[in-house]
Amino acid sequence: MTSFALKTFVGLRQASPESPHHHHSIALTKPIQSPLHSPAKYSESLPENRAPESLAATSESPSLVAAQLVAPPPRLSRKAVLRRSSSSASSTTASQCGGAIPLCMVGEFDLPLDIIDRRVTKMKMISPSNVAVDIGQTLKPHEYIGMVRREVLDAYLRDRASACGASVINGLFLKMDMPQSSTSPYVLHYTGYDSKSGGVGERRTLEVDAVIGADGANSRVAKSINAGEYEYAIAFQERIKIPDEKMVYYENLAEMYVGDDVSPDFYGWVFPKCDHVAVGTGTVTHKGDIKQFQLATRKRAEDKILGGKIIRVEAHPIPEHPRPRRLSGRVALVGDAAGYVTKCSGEGIYFAAKSGRMCAEAIVEGSENGKRMVEEGDLRKYLEKWDKTYWPTYKVLDVLQKLFYRSNPAREAFVEMCADEYVQKMTFDSYLYKRVVPGNPLDDLKLAVNTIGSLVRANALRKEMDKISV
Length: 470
Ligand SMILES: Cc1cc2nc3c(=O)[nH]c(=O)nc-3n(C[C@H](O)[C@H](O)[C@H](O)COP(=O)(O)OP(=O)(O)OC[C@H]3O[C@@H](n4cnc5c(N)ncnc54)[C@H](O)[C@@H]3O)c2cc1C
Fold this sequence. Notes:
Catalytic activity: phytyl diphosphate + 3 NADP(+) = geranylgeranyl diphosphate + 3 NADPH + 3 H(+)
Radius of gyration: 24 Å
Number of domains: 3
Number of helices: 13
Structural class: alpha+beta
Pathway: Cofactor biosynthesis; tocopherol biosynthesis; Porphyrin-containing compound metabolism; chlorophyll biosynthesis
Number of strands: 20
Organism: Liquidambar formosana (Formosan gum)
Bound molecules: flavin-adenine dinucleotide
Keywords: Chlorophyll biosynthesis, NADP, Oxidoreductase, Photosynthesis
Mean pLDDT: 77
CATH superfamily of the largest domain: FAD/NAD(P)-binding domain
Strand content: 15-25%
Protein name: Geranylgeranyl diphosphate reductase, chloroplastic
CATH architecture of the largest domain: 3-Layer(bba) Sandwich
Oligomer: single chain
CATH topology of the largest domain: FAD/NAD(P)-binding domain
Shape: globular
């Protein structure tokens, strides 16, 4: 009997220097002791001594670590993480990110409160003409948006994965060889960095039975399966240490700026961190002008961040839509590698974690807890569930972005609408809890009328402005 190992970049078989014989050095695992263990109904049983394993090609990222946490021991007897590292175990490759997470993520992923820098309960939405609308008035006392530093969140998740029995491998995934049959392994090639190699990279291989590609927007796993490209935005962010007295203003408050100056198709933000703020913006359509948009965002927040010192600069692609292909054989993509960031809000942390978990669950279930080799159909269940659950969310946010981020008058209308308590409640409820909240029919009707009114006014204003600029 074999057991199932969920790995984020690891096999039950130990990583070893590249060797043609490595394939045969298979480690047997302990029998499964899960209560879910049921009599075998194999569609394809494993060859003797072959232990099915799954793998995600990255670590330190929510999607990866969530994948491991789906099934702590004894359900999964061994787990491991491959984390990218340039040269040494101590170097950090934390994701570049604003770090805003919804409340439901804290509970769902059991995050400790001390890794949350700030609990944002107030949000200012600031229009192109600098009209500021306070949103968050409908929040209940226990509700907030969590602000984390990714280096803190990722390190916590990695350590927890390790404490749950995962082996963390410092290594850069390079490529993989495809299996020769439905039961033979994928051979992953990576450069390993550890104390044995003295900080100098060493080429190694690893054999695994399934791969969860959680390696972000520039995913090499996606390339390995010819997953195709997606349109992407570029996001730019500066961490700015501002004087303590200025930090008081951002105690529990975040700002979102909209306008052609800060971004033609997204928004600029100031998010509070432990002792500094993150100021950033993004764009799909005018990537070459990102620094100019960043300057404009800083300028808009100028009086509040005056005297600040830039302590870190970050820039990274953000996917705009899922890749044409997210699955091939026993390889599935999750998080940014798959392309799961929402339009309009640019949110991706929760979706990365959630997709990692869903994918891992599908593998655990499909393998019948390790008794059976998984096949493409098992992993496809994750995609089906994902699309069914989140497709409406992505679609609604896509439409909102197209409606409201297209011109300054439309943005003024958007900010005006945000003053409505009903809009705030609906927006916060769906953001914080990631579920579509049933509305009140009368309020829905009022909202529809107000939206149309705002858009008509925005359109009329745009036409007037076009005439002026002719
Ligand atoms: C500036 C900016 C601000 C953002 N702000 C927010 C926000 O406030 N809230 C929000 O929800 N989302 C935000 N996002 C989006 C969010 O950061 C991503 O959607 C999220 O990080 C995706 O997680 P992931 O685990 O899929 O990928 P990533 O976070 O990109 O993690 C990928 C991991 O894989 C590792 N890796 C990559 N290649 C390899 C390899 N070859 N071998 C081994 N490891 C590898 C990387 O080191 C990294 O640890 C922001 C994005 C940007 C760029």
